[in-house]
Amino acid sequence: MYIGKLVNPARIKWNNIRIQKAWTLKYLGVVIDNNLSWVPHIVDRGTKSLDHYHQLQRIAGKNWGLSTANRKLIYKTSLPHNLNIELKNTNRHSSSSPHKSIKISRLRQSAYVIDDPIDPTSYEEILRGHQFHPAEFKIDNQISTEPALNYPTENATFTDGSKTTEGTGSAFCCFDETGQLKSEWMGKLTLDNNIFQAELFAISQAILHHTNSNAQIKIWTDSLSSLQAILNPTSPHDLVRNIQNQLQSKDNIDLGWIKAHIGHYGNETADALAKKAINEGITSKIKKATYLSQKIS
Fold first, then answer.
1. Is residue 36 predicted with pLDDT exceeding 50?
2. Longest Cα pair distance anywhere in the chain, in angstroms?
3. How far lies 59's CA from each of 56, 84, 87, 148, 155, in Å?
4. Which residue intervals define the domain RNase H type-1 in the entry (predicted)?
5. Domain count, the chain
6. Are strands 156-164 and 116-118 parallel, antiparallel or unpaired?
7. Which DSSP string corresponds to 53-117?
8. pLDDT, greater one: 87 or 43
9. pLDDT tens digits, residue range 101-151?
10. Residue 260: which domain range?
11. Domain-located, residue 201
């Protein structure tokens, strides 16, 4: 980030790759902008405060705490998808639920909720710290989160994930050197898996499909959050860490972001396959989502 009045500041490169200028950055929770105006920081704090206020409003209603009927409804209908959140969103006088949340998500021990046994091994584990030494984390140049000038289908692969009330699906499609559809894959996940997992699983399977290729491979996804997670060397998600491992050993595979719903043939094909995978895909088992996958209203 450049702070100054020059119209054309110096261009900085690393390994002959130009580093894009940032307008803001966050350091120790403080958002700093290039004009040192603090406006982005105030907006950021205000947005988070408003979001917390709305969450408390939904939980508390007119009186603090949920009724017994509402607590049971949340447990029975949402627990598989929102494990950590619902275990904590109980009446404030209850002392057992936070303990259950810690027992399941952190200690990885079984617990009972409304007489239903919860097996922690079936849920995604929260991982901490680096899996690679920072100096050995070398996949940054293989991932682009910036829009491209064009998205050729020749020798390209497109991935996507989809989730409906019927289930969750992952898919990818590959095109040959002439731009013709060469191969496709569809994976059928469960309602316990969220859209974030579906997107990541599709990327992982696409990389696995090309693992024996020595050609330069380009994989496109419309999930910007997935690419940002993969760029995070301390991501807590097991699926993300698996992709990082795959890319560490395959420097001929690049990931790029394509905007969703722009009418691109490759992206639209992957989107249609992901929706189709919910009912017709190959049954694929990955651990249930530990994090919140849909809001409680």
1. yes
2. 66
3. 5, 15, 13, 42, 50
4. 151-279
5. 2
6. unpaired
7. HHHHHHHHTTSSS--HHHHHHHHHHHTTT-HHHHHHSS-TT-SHHHHHHHHHHTS---EEETTEE
8. 43
9. 555 555 566 666 666 677 777 777 777 788 888 888 889 999 999 999 899
10. 140-283
11. yes
